[in-house]
Amino acid sequence: MRSELKGQKRTTTPYKTERHRVCKFFHFAGLTELMSKEQVEALVHTVESLLAEATQLQAQCREESTRVSTVAMQLREESEMLRGQCEAAQLDMADMQKKLEELLDTKAAFEARERQARKLSKQL
Length: 124
What we know:
Elements (H helix, E strand, L loop, with lengths): L1 H5 L11 H12 L1 H4 L2 H87 L1
Helix pairs in contact: 2-4
């Protein structure tokens, strides 16, 4: 009989409620024979609570994941913008450094001419 079922697609009947599914699982696992009806009901209630909590946590995780993705995208954009600003500032600094060197060269040249002028003035 098993060989006949191998090629066939297995169909399952949908459960009416989550409670029905949990009860069928416990029955299939043989737990209902080892426990009183109150214990089974308490266990079913606990499992239902855990499933509800897991569903709620899953939804929270999805929301948090969406928020984190949004923040990560914003940070990437901000990082790119800051990188551009940093490059522009480095170019400005290089330009200022060049101009400062030119000014220091001009100052040194001016001071040298001033010393030369004083020497010529003393010689006269």
